[in-house]
Records
---
Amino acid sequence: MSEEFIVKTVKLTKEYGQTVALKNADIAIRRGSIYGLVGNNGAGKTTFLKILAGQTHATGGSFILMGEDNEKGYKKARKRTGAIIENPGFYPKLSAKQNLEYYRIQRGIPGKDIVDRMLEQVGLSGAAKRKFEKLSLGMKQRLGLALALMGEPELLILDEPINGLDPAGIIEVRNFLLKLNQEKNVTIIISSHILTELQNIATDYGFLSKGELVEQISAEKLREKCKAFLEIKVTDAERYAALLETELLCSNYKVLPDGYIHILERVDNVSDYSALAVKHGIGLLSFEMKEINLENYYMNLV
């Protein structure tokens, strides 16, 4: 497999009895990217991440992980992988530091100092001696992130890592992940229901719906598709659309039901578009500048 991809799947499928959680998914994740998984609950995001992390097995298709394509190879690759999927299994009566120390020993990771470094990196140094059961939800999320990072992984798999964090905590985790990606070239696969936050971090996206991969796209191409547009509502949309082409030489537009038109080019020339309607006696009912965000883009896809 080309070193360009750290993960590549072919018709990856997972069935739970009669329920198909993931269906024929062809997903390719570039090494060094931050891959944002987008999808509603039940779309297949967590199932896909669990397959990669070895927490469940696919029932169909195949995948390559860090160049490995069999169970023996996957075990080697997963030693270079960190993951937070659902709730990590921490011991409630042990402190944050004791929990990490337990997993450090269990995993055979050398050097006690790595526990303190991980706690500091995720902003938990001040809570190192606090019992896990006394930590806030946001702190528990950060401790999970510290655990995932403890083996200094090449690939980081994060399922809803900012769930429960306040705005300051979200920014802190975002900046940390960006630094990890840019300075250490760690590939990050991240799912989140906070889609505006994914827009601040992802370099690539995979859109899942009902277990199927609907689209895979780079952030750069997505930005091109999500440019600002003018939404105009007129009394005679067909006539106005014809005038757009003949008088303003505008061809990048869409005519929608109920008299709405979306204009996708030269959106700064708002006076030209309003003047065109007035000149030809077409009623201008509404006129608004809009922008497609990630949530709207996903909803349009599915």
---
Amino acid sequence: MMKINDIKVILERFFQPVELVGNGDQVITGPAKIEEAGPGQVSFVANEKYYRFLGDAKASLLIVHTDAPVGDGADGRSFLKVGDPYTAFVFVLREFAGARQVAAPGIAASAFVDPTARLGRNVSVGEHAVVGERCVVGDDSVIGPNTVLMQDVSIGSGCVLYPQVTCYDGTEIGDRVVVHSGTVIGADGFGFAPQKDGSYIKIPQMGTVQIEDDVEIGANTTIDRATMGKTLVCKGAKIDNLVQIAHNCRIGEDTVIASQAGISGSVRIGRQCLIGGQAGFAGHLEIADRVSVAAKAGISKSFTDPGQAIRGVPAQPMRDQLRQEAQIRGIGAMKERIDELEAQLKALLQEPSA
């Protein structure tokens, strides 16, 4: 619990100005969605098209945009007006959420830590976890139960690896990285040399995976090691659940990849890109910075112009793809018109000449 004035102080660390309308001494017990929030709770309205719901909202505190039309607080509700209500509410959520305990402090009795491994200060290693030969784990990092670090894995400071994460040998993870359960980092890339008789010879996967600082990786995601060199996920990237990133890919800084996207080998994706769910990338492509890829897009060629939006199968600039969709929707009517014209022409050809 905290008073509204305390919440205002928290938001003032990130936003200026923060304007309070109402009673700053009122106690807030926690956050809630606007349609469910009641007395004692805080919610937010970020989009002006939802201002119409302000009058019916029951929350004691609403975080709204600086321009939002609000009352004077006489009805018992209070408002905090900021330039970015959505992000402001995120900071409020963080205050109320607290820390999730992934593993008990210290080294669990059932965990195995190789004598050659080096652990920093305040490291926690959960039940049945394995920290292999020559691994390094930085200060304040947490290795969840049943998580396995094979040999020569490097984990930075302030990281959280949830239960049942597997990091293959040589994986490098930076600071403040979060890896959710079931994720596998550094498995062999899908490399096989086809032979004349139809069989395949496995190509040794001798590279590594590097995950830079402040990356978050969702559950059951797989990031393959490079054939040679490294597969690289750059600083600040956010990767959803069930994403496949193949060998030798490079994911740019602050790029976001939604669930079930599949990225083939040696694809280079730029900075601050938005990749929709179930998007699929052919291998050896290049995607420029700030490109938005719609869900279910099939990317079969490179897109090197920054800032464009692409969609469809095969993917193309959104304006072109929408035009084609409209044309396809008109094919039925076009066929009917062609059939009608053919019938008229046939009738004219069958008329006796004068």
